[in-house]
Amino acid sequence: MSKIGTVQRAAVVVATALALGGGVVTEASAASTEPARVLDPCGYVDPGMYRHCDGGSGSTVMLDVQDIFRNVYHYCVGPGVTNVQPVIRWRVIDAWWNGGVGCQPGYYGPA
């Protein structure tokens, strides 16, 4: 990579970090992050995945997870991406935070 390409890449990494509320990012730390992860949305991500953006607090949240027949289930997730589909029999079509915090991650059953 040319020196200009390296400078442009570093500028993009710093601009992205500042836009997300972060501090200064070094080239070494930028190489260890996944740029695609920064752009992923928080909340339900089809198919059957939920991304909990906690801002580094380590919090857990209770979700309402809905299947294709509109049945609703409770599922607690921690920070990061969680697959909520495996324990629910029918295809998951949506999931949202129901206001609960501080739960033990896992499946809690029907709502």
Q: What order do the strands of the largest sheet run in, or round the barrel if closed?
A: 6-3-4-7
The count of β-strands is 7
**Whole-angstrom Rg:** 18 Å
| Largest sheet composition | 4 strands, antiparallel
Would you list the SSEs in sequence order as H and E? HHHEEEEEEE
Figure out the total of helices: 3
Distance between the termini: 54 Å
What is the percentage of strand-forming residues?
35-45%
Q: What structural class do helix, strand and pairing data support?
A: alpha+beta
Give the domain tally. 2
- Looking at how many chains there are and whether they match, the oligomeric state comes to single chain
Helix percentage? 10-25%
Q: How much is the average pLDDT?
A: 76
Signal peptide: 1-30
Keywords: Signal
Pfam families: DUF6355
InterPro entries: DUF6355
Explained architecture:
- InterPro entries: DUF6355.
- This is Secreted protein.
- There is one protein chain.
- This protein is α+β, with helices and mostly antiparallel strands.
- It has two domains: 1-39; 41-111, no CATH class.
- Helix content is 24%, strand content 35%.
- It contains three helices and seven strands, in the order αααβββββββ.
- The protein has helices at residues 3-19, 27-31, 35-39, and strands at 43-45, 49-52, 61-67, 72-77, 80-83, 92-101, 106-110.
- The strands form two sheets. It has a four-stranded antiparallel beta sheet, with no helix packed on it. The chain has a three-stranded antiparallel beta sheet with strand order 1-2-5, with no helix packed on it.
- A hairpin with a 4-residue loop joins strand 3 (61-67) and strand 4.
- The longest helix is centred in the first third of the chain and has 17 residues, at 3-19.
- The protein is globular and about 35 Å long.
- The termini are far apart.
- Mean pLDDT is 76; it is low at 1-36.
